[in-house]
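The passage that follows is intended for readers who have already worked through the single-chain material. We present the inputs for a multi-component assembly, then the predicted structure in tokenized form, and finally a short commentary. You are encouraged to pause after the input and sketch how you expect the pieces to fit together before reading on.
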Amino acid sequence: MELFILQLFNGLSISSILLLVALGLAITFGLMKVINMAHGELIMIGAYATYLTQNLFLDYMPASMFNWYFVLAIPVSFAIAFAIGLVLEMGLIRFLYGRPLDSLLATWGVGLVLQQLARTIFGAPNVAVKSPAWLDGGMQIFGGTLLPYKRLFIIALVIACLVAMYVYIYRSLEGRRMRAVMQNREMAACLGVSTRRVDAMTFAIGSGIAGIAGCALTLLGPIGPSLGTYYIVDAFMVVVLGGVGKLVGTVLGATGIGMFNTLFEYWTNASLGKVLVFVCIVAFLQWKPSGLVAMRTRSLD
Amino acid sequence: MQLTRITGNRLWILGAYLVAAAALFSAPLVFSDFRLNLLAKFLAFAIVALGLDLIWGYTGILSLGHGIFFGLGAYAMAMYLKLEASGGKLPDFMGWSGLKELPLFWMPFENFGAAVALGILIPALLALGLGYFTFRNRIRGVYFTILTQALVIITTTLLVGQQAFTGGTNGVTGYSTLLGYSLASPETKRVLYWVTVAVLIGIFILCRYLTGSRFGKVLRAIRDGENRVRFIGYNPAVYQMVIFTVSAAIAGIAGMLFVLHVGIISPSMLGIVPSIEMVLWVAIGGRGTLIGAALGAILMNWAKSEFSTAYPEGWLFFMGAMFVIAVVFLPKGVAGLFQWRGKDRKKWLPAWARGSGGKLRTGEKEGSVPQG
Amino acid sequence: MRKGLFYQFALLIVAVSMVLAGCGANNEPASSGTNAPQESSASGGSDNGEIKVGILHSQSGTMAISETSVIDAEMMAIEEINAAGGVLGKKIVPVLEDGASDWPTFAEKARKLISEDKVATVFGGWTSASRKAMLPVFEELNGLLWYPVQYEGLEASPNIFYTGATTNQQIVPSVTWLLENRGKKVYLLGSDYVFPRTANLIIKEQLKAEGGELAGEEYTPLGHTDYSTIISKIKAADPDIVYNTLNGDSNVAFFKQLKDAGITAEDMTTLSVSVAEEEIRGIGVDVLAGHLAAWNYYQTTDTPTNAKFVESYKAKYGADRVTADPIEAGYTAVYLWAAAVEKAGSTDVAAVKEAAKELEWDAPSGKVKIDGETQHIYKTVRIGEVQADGQFKELWNSGEAVKPDPFLKGYEWAASIQQ
Amino acid sequence: MANKGAAILECEDVTVEFDGFKAVQGMNLQLQKGELRFLIGPNGAGKTTMLDVICGKVRPSAGSVTFGGKVDITRKHEHQIAELGIGRKFQAPSIFKDMTVMENLEIAMRQKRSVMATLFARMNSEDEGRLNGQLSMIGLSSKGSWRAGGLSHGEKQWLEIGMMLMQEPEVLLLDEPVAGMTDKETDKTGELLHEIARARSVVVVEHDMEFVRNFASKVTVMHEGKLLKEGSMEEVQGDDRVAEVYLGRRREEHASRSTA
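Having made your guess, compare it with the prediction:
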């Protein structure tokens, strides 16, 4: 029983991590049809931004304040990834709209450069980020089962990001413009929406969320130049499985993959579990090529 | 008059190809053993590039899984070589992993002919299987590409995880002879080099025929507008399946030659990074031109081998930058630079690559089937 | 279109001539090794007052994390030897090549170093896969490789000297120590590749022979980053000891998540064989403190040579750098080779091999000796505990250098592994 | 030539649903051999959807489409329907723009469509004659080696019609063939259409009434997915319901256009 609850929680936790990693992609890929292979590197940038924030606190702030660096690290990671996303959009991505496969290849090149850049600046070895003391330990439930605060925090962070994105996309003026442009570019342009601006903003927001993901991942995993490569394929699987262009789909996709991953890993082993999950995804997509939540259109394309 | 000019040009081109072939065949006279070995490896890569160009450059389907097909061919040859080197005993890595006897699926690889046949058939069948489902279900474009990546993850994880049967991350290495001839001797190496050149030329001619035939025209039509092809009465799924299978078989052949020259195959050669690098060769050389793809593979690898030593850090910057530049600004690669002075100078870019920004999206509608 | 064909032809000619010219130009020995500007046009390993040696590690790719420090140590050793007058009165000139974390590249570069640069020896490799890739090349061309990392044993190539530990100098004694001091129930956790699988095969036999109990065995893919399920399994199995053969980044994820799950070093002993001083810096001391590791050398190892070694390493590469076992093994390799060349009076491979037999040197890790039979070296085994400053405190050592036994011939229980 | 009276295409009770929205409801359509039929109606009447059903792009949720009196084509794939002899021209020109004009025609040409057949296909003089004939018919003789993407809008439309003709279908489905054309181009397209209609059955979806009036043929009016009226142009124009839903709204506009 205790094990069952723990595994359920683990599955939920993995789902939340996958979702956080894939949320940015759901925007850039789902809404803009840009295959951003440098998404993983934006996550890495978020992680390094957290590392830098930590170092600033270590160097310039009183030791008693140290634990609060992480609160600041989240917006800092977002801002830095946002800025880099903006530069990327203006310098490269805008030439690639309507050419998804080319955007895949070009951004892969960008990812390569960013990785090497990180290696040059921070060195090849991993760097350490000390997680704040208030996230140490965990919540005891049902006597023995311990739910780590860090994982709970990430789940909360994902929910916060989701709500923020929902409000932004569906309840704000900017978001309405964004939806308008993504649905009918010409019409939106005719109505006076600056499509260039919206494109740039949308891509930058997607990148910024990747930055937040990077910040959260410092709690659980390694921080090094190749950090992004561990997550990029999984993130794409989440978005494709969920159905491109729908936030609900992304949430379902992440939950599905996270839960099954935990289940298979528990039943078999980590390698085989991974293989099984991917086989299931491939098989599922054969059955439903447009994912769990499909956007129905009259168009065949 | 028109006719004679064309035949005149054709003769020139034929002459150029003959000179190039002759130069390749006589390379052993000039090169040291090491350089020859390098060149042979690059030629094997050029073969994969040709296959990849068929599917990407001509049919518009981007496979990021060609490393698998290349690798499966390579493993087939490696298994044969390993068994021959082990001389009837169990290959060393099986011993470390606790196996007591040769697994059943290794048995056919004791025979050279069977190993070669399987080295072509296994990648071809895998491609056919994947192609059958995906193309029939009209999974295409980005989705197909992402599926091939999933396939890469599945294959490499299995190869690494099943160490007892596959050699794990170390892969399969430590060969001695091929059909009784020592792989270490310079004579064998020279012969293998010539074999590689011959295979490259053979596959080049095959690709040339395929792309020049009406079959090739249907492929290009599929690239331009898959749905439209359907309404003229062709079943694109069958065409895509066939060319994907041919492309995978070519990659398998290249893999077999690669193992003979390099002496090792490991799962890392099947991963996502090598698979994307293969695409890079074609992108930089020029997709949609066979000669561009082949030269792209040779030049990029030559450059990598030369520059990565001098600037191990700069190399990755250079490669990333090349990728971006080639994709964004040279959609036809280096070969495109040499073509653009043709008759329609301004139209050397395909429509989807012309113009900039948001305009493209509207432009794209043309040619694809419009909405109902 | 026709015009296009004509330009294709032009392209073909240009490109073919470029390739041929490029390869051709580099075919001449004078221009090889573009990265070693100080080298002359020496065509052999030891001409014109210079001896060329190859250094072949990954400077790019995933393995660069570990291997760049080894390059630093080897370069430092070469500089020190040169400053002291060189070998046979000649200067050692290093030729650096990048293995790029790619095993076929290791094979290619090894071939280049031996046949093009004609180096006297090569120091290189880290992963087993890279060594296995280079091995046939060194045997075919009769070169000499010094391999500086602990590995899974079961190998003794006549063309390789192994300066890292083999299994009986790290794993076997550490398991014995654990069974005597920390409990009997052992959980085996490793990355899914050759070293952990082979190591665990040995440990399982050893557990049977020495009264241990196997609580579980798990492998995770390289680069695996979520250990929650594994940790649940470990919790359920409730072992006394987790024997950790995870590699690289996975260690970071595992230890961070182990701490989150509320398991500390007091609850359960975790002994790692791939976590050294360098890795500690990337994982964070806060999650690692109290856990154990088994090596032959720590930065804190108390020998006279080590004090000097650590001091010059920090002076050369920065005070924040640390030394670790493979770094020391790379440094030692260069000195052992130099000593063997001095003794042989030549860089000839056969002569050096002969001279290296039973050669002794005071390494930073203590007295080492080359075993002539297996070409491994005698090493002292040390078990250390991670301290709050990121250094190890030695809990136990084997006292004297242990004779290498890559095929575990001296252990009856290992009969099934030896074949 | 053709024995009038035998229906080559018969749509019965065709219904198409998109997410609950009924684009076509219980539509009936009969096409005789050799007939030229215009399909008109206001925007959203379901005209294009009807063509989509016939050529297999859209599966109807109910109803049947019978071709040649025996084959139900609602269960067939697009390419099978095309091979049976139903050709479709889309509203926006959809030609293969990275191929030459000649190559476009070549792959559209009536021939075996299997991989094996195309692999070993050889261009014989008869084929070449057919291709050149078609090229001159659509007025592109001098542009045979052009990249099709480089043609003007009107030329692309003609090329597409030419491709359809090379298919030698028994039934042709044309969706607004003169949309976006200049007057001169429209006239030329009209000529082409007369030529085509002589030998085959044709269904044309068209908005341009002027253009429709040039052909003395049967007109089917659709409204909100249903059949509203079928008959000659005069009958249709005289019908009150048609005038109300369709022509009524357009009469003013139309009048101004004819006087211009």
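Commentary: The first strand of chain C starts at residue 50 and ends at 57. Chain C touches chain D through one residue (CB under 8 Å). How closely did your sketch match?
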